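Hi L., both proteins are below.
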Amino acid sequence: MKLHRICLFLLACILPASCADLNYSEVNTRDEAWTYEYFENGIKNMVFDVYAQLYNSEFESNSAYFLAGATDEAQYALETGAVNNYINGGWSAANPYSSTWTKSYTAIAEIAMYLEKIDQADISEWEYNSNYNNWIQQLEIFPYELRFLRAYFYFELFRTYGDVPLVTTTLTNGQANNVYRTPADEIVKFIVDELDAVAPYLPVSYMTEVGAEIGRATRVAAYALKARTLLYAASPLFNPTGNKDKWAKAAEACKFVLDNADTWGLKLSAYGSLWGHDAFFNPELIYGLGRGESNSFEMANYPIGVENGASGNCPTQSLVDQYEYQDNGETFAERYPGSINLAMVDPYEGLDPRFALTVVKNGDLWPSNGSQQKVIETFVGGFNASPKYGATPTSYYLRKYVDGSCVTTADNQTRRRHTWILFRLGEIYLDYAEAVFNATGSANDPTYGLTANEAVNKLRSRSDIQMPKFTEDGDAWVKRYERERLVELAFENHRFWDVRRWKKGPEYFSKIQVATISSSLQLTRSTVTRQWDDKYYLYPIPQSELKKNPNLTQNQGW
């Protein structure tokens, strides 16, 4: 079993009950000296407390970081869904609706405290404990893990806010409330320099490390984060002059990951095995968030009509329209631009196999568990459709990430493990293709070895996909690439950020297509208009932070 990937199942089981409280005070049962003298319940828990910030999602615990409802991927079934704040005007500096600022700077402060005080750690009184030598070995790796995590949190801050304060030491409240925003290019340089510095000291795999623990930062994750950071830095939002040197750096960083993939034990997998109970064993996964056994995500996304199903994130017709047919690469929208009589024709036959692995449509058998499986009816008046309250507003339901084997009935429920993908090899191929195209100006330029088209075709040639190869170049390539990225990475929390870094919000997010299926099975498209303002490319700095710190400035438009 390869353990180069970060699945965090171990940490997920431990963190809720054992995170260390770093606010040493008379009301706590521990003090600073105690913390640095005890390994398992002191020092190690401090490290786990930083990892815990990765689990502070945008919304409720079963959201899986789903921002899809604020993109053209999905429409959230209930208007009261928190994600709708991004599209209905409920988003502001006073109500920023994001934990990114708080969770990131909380983690960064904890890391600074640890790195400054680790030299005072003294567990020598435990030297006769049978685990003492193992603890010493782990202590040597902890600082590099935490520096990786600090780079990750600064990436999240950078892509969310742009310029942010760069803080690497512990601060008093007064100091913290007087910091200035650091230019984004300097934040990127810090992230890249940190990752380059710590990666050689992080294991590729933990199989030969103490305890072989799943859930620790790896060298592979560090280089993947470096590649993604440089891709964002080269994108139009952060590279308004189109500096090709930035694209070249991104291409080189991606190439390094691809060149070493075999050595690191990475390889592309079947698309449908990227999620599910055993996804953390998947050789394509680089970095993921693991959850223990649960069916809360299934309850949130099973169709109305399935017991305890709440519809959740419903794929749009805009998404469905982007899937291509296997015979000639024509898109769904190109082949069926108008209304469709589903009683006479099956427009889904011959579509990219990733469609059926991502979307539940009218007529599908779902969920897959025997006790709840039935034919899904999304036509008006159907068992899983309007006028039932909370039914899909798009005529589709979500399959990707949803484990259909979970039983959600009142009695005899079953639960499964889940892994939310943060980095995988498939993304790196797409990142590489985009960077190489922009660095060289061509999708067929072999300067970096693999051309942009060849990189994309690696994904499309997988044994379970087998889609027509890319041959385009120029503007036609850009259009098709953006479609491919949407399809391949659907519901993996990329679309929200990709469209922003490309500065194409009005093109993709201001209007979306949904479908209605009549009782006579006539599918008709309709347009849903959403609120978009160019200030949405970056989040607002929380108003509460601006009040505390007069040196912070607000992002444009907020």
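That was the first. Here is the second:
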Amino acid sequence: MSNQYSNKGIYKNISNWHNFRLTVFAEGIATGIFAGLVISFFRWALHETEVWRAGFFKNVLSQNPLYIVLWFAALILVAFVLDRLTKHEPLAAGSGIPQVKGAIVGLIKMRWFPIMWVKLVAGIIGIGAGLSLGREGPSIQLGAVSAQGISRFLKRTRMEERYLMTSGASAGLAAAFNAPLAGVMFALEELHRSFSIVVLLPSMAAAFTATILSRFLFGRAPIFTMPDLQVLHTEDLLIVVLVAMVAGTCGVIFNKGLLNVNRFYALPIFKSSFHKIAFALFCAGVLGFYLPEVLGGGNNLINQLATTPAPLKMLVIFLIGKLIFTFISYGCGVPGGFFLPMLVIGALTGSVISNLLVTAGIIEAAKGPTIVVIAMAALFSSSVRAPITGTVLIMEMTSSYQQLLSLAVASMIAFVVAELWQSKPIYEELLARSLNSQKPSEAVKHQRTLAEFVVDSGSYCENKMLKQIELPPHTLIVDIKRGEESITPEPDVKLMQGDFIYVFCTHTQVEEISKLTDYKDK
């Protein structure tokens, strides 16, 4: 039996915890280099295809009309290629973030190399052809499978592989957005849901290494260019709350649309996955002539609006067009994420709000771009339900470090708005639907692993002795970490808030055990 599935390596890591932390830190650096190179190539290729597409649509109308016919014929060919690629590796479809979440908890088994090359090729083709999809979700999955490849090459244990995949996802977001802190926060807050040092160290190492590599290749400029952002003061707090409430509600609408677009594609006219992809690409072809601003990820649209404000009517058209076309693009099932389009929709929402507030004389025109930035953070937090990541991400993407307080307040308000609407976090819901549609294989279901859990305040396990805790059958607590102290899991040991417990169990038991350690509303 290989080291990958051997228990010997797991016990060795547990008993040599100090050395293990240093090892995963070094492996995090290696992950950052590999993931940074892969994602930098992906980022460069997408930029080149989008530049070509913009030039094509700008000049094609003045050429022979035959070129238009040839372009739509080419889109049919692209649809065929994307359909074949997606069928070859189904786990490369979509954004990839739900798949990474499932792989980290052991419910999905990813084949790292097939996913990597399919994601790269299909992502470049699909986004390059104009689908309203972003590079960030795919970059996160590319980072995770890059880490998985390193783990398999080094023959690491499944426990260590999960840590490396988290660090790879962190590197993916950091390299794609030039935002290392946001990469770390997203990996910890959204993917791994743990802030233990053994997760934090490799995630930071990978994110900062990938960012250094990305900045060496692409420069230090932020993704969104927002010059001369005005700081909102205490007297503007009500405006921040208003913007957050509106953008938070838009985040709920965004989630509803994205989760229900499958009903549209269930219509009888879509007889196969090829028809869905061909329809989305046909829409891209038409929009390329009449509304090219909504094609692709959309970050250029935000940069354009920051320097050249558009009239309200045009902003509303951009917003509705981008929203609907994102649903159509993501729903067709090709590789590509909605991470960046979601932020663009948030920015367009903020542009509409700021335009109305300026027209009403409530704020000065100079504060308009600040409203845009705040709306982006609010919509992200409402949709993903990760307010810390939303705050840090937008702050880094726009270099608006002085807006920290306003961004944090907006993110929290939007989070509450989504809770009041009882909207579910988008990535968790997509993962749940994916798992419901395809049951885990028997090999995955019965594969045993070592899982890490943290005892939350108010959880079932808090202040209970191990002999009082009813674990699922055939599970075993093999170690307890309390700060720097390692505690032998004897029956009379009492668990305390903040303890990290390591349980040997099957993948399907992870969720059941997590319910014992997570906060329980009494």
